Amino acid sequence: MADLPQVSLDRPTPGQSLTTEVGNRPWENPPQYTTVEEALQYYIPRLLNPDLQEDLFNVLETGIPVTLIADTLVQGGMMEGKHTVDVGILALPVLMETIGYLAEEQNVDYDMGTELKTDDTPSSSAIALAVKRVREQQEAIGEAPPMPEPTPMMEEEEAMPVEEESMESNMSTPPEGGLMSRRM
Amino acid sequence: MNNAAFKAYAGLPRPQEKKSTSMSSSTNTGLLSRGMNKKPEKKQIPEPRQRVANYVAELRQARMDLKNG
User: Fold this and answer.
1) What angle do CA B19, B22, B25 make, to 5 degrees?
2) How many distinct helices (H) and strands (E) make up chain B?
3) Nearest beta carbon to residue B59 from set A36, A92, A97
4) Partner-chain contact B8 A105, CB within 8 Å
5) Does any domain span residue A52?
6) In chain A, which residues have their Cβ closer than 8 Å to the Cβ of B66?
7) Do A71 and B4 touch (CB under 8 A)?
8) Does a structural domain hold residue A13?
9) Bigger pLDDT: A146 vs A124
10) Global model pTM greater than 0.80
11) What domain count does chain A have?
């Protein structure tokens, strides 16, 4: 049986954000860093921290793209109220390049994640659909009545298309005169 | 791909080229010369997107230099 799409239940309840006092959440307060440069001054020393770098390079070597790592980093900063969403989005490309530079410096294989990948392997849903269609075709072939033996009537019917073809060939040639010309 | 980082990276403007401030030796810079600038040019601070594009271009250049040896 094909896998049905799973509904994610790990989500906040609608209206959950309204259950606390306004200003209790870090992102409901004014941001700590208001410019891109300030936000980068917060992030880049953290990226240069040797303890964090080891984990970063391990994650990069597992094949996780730089885009995803930078995105996660910035989302954490936004949730902590360090900066606003727009400052975070502006800081993203610089963080990506910094991570790429650090990985290049340490000869770590990394994927920037900036290239659109065309994956030739079909998805599981496409495979399930193809299998279903093949089964339907097999069932249709298996249940179809056997082909009847040719009778004299059928032989006559087979001879008919020859005349039709000759008529079609006559129709395909355009008439020589105009619409108002006299018949010859 | 529905990734904010990918979109932000792909949507960066072109980096601004640095203007050379050195004047050519043929231009006369005397007080009565025609080519003398009357007012000093105001230093324009680029937009945040442009600043980010300039930072990214510098970092990318450094990364490519490392990559190509």
Assistant:
1) 140
2) 2, 0
3) A97
4) no
5) yes
6) 101, 104-105
7) yes
8) no
9) A124
10) no
11) 1
| Residue keyed to tokens 């640095």 | B18
Give me the domain span that covers residue A49: 36-105
Q: Write the ipTM.
A: 0.71
Over residues A23-74, the pLDDT tens digits come to 888 988 999 999 999 999 999 999 999 989 999 999 999 999 999 999 999 9
pLDDT at residue B42, as a whole number: 73
* Both tokens assigned to A163: 């005349």
Q: Distance between CA atoms of A88 and A76, rounded to whole angstroms?
A: 10
Q: Which residue of B has its CA nearest to A87?
A: B48
pLDDT tens digits for A77-98?
Answer: 999 999 999 999 999 999 999 9
**CB atoms B5 and A68 under 8 Å:** yes
Inform me whether the C-beta atom of residue B23 falls under 8 Å from chain A C-beta atoms.
no
Give the three-class secondary structure for A70. helix
A44 domain-assigned: yes
Residues of A with CB under 8 A from a CB of B: 35-37, 40, 66-68, 70-71, 74, 89-94, 96-98, 100-101, 104-105, 113-114, 116
Sort out which chain B residues have CB atoms less than 8 A from A74's CB and list them: 4-5
**Position A57 in a domain:** yes
- Out of B9, B49, B59, closest to residue A114 by CB: B9
Residues of B in contact with A68 (CB under 8 A): 3, 5
SS percent in chain B: helix, strand, coil, step 5 = 40, 0, 60
- What is the DSSP code string of A158-183? HHHHHHHHHHHHHHHSPPSS-TTPPP
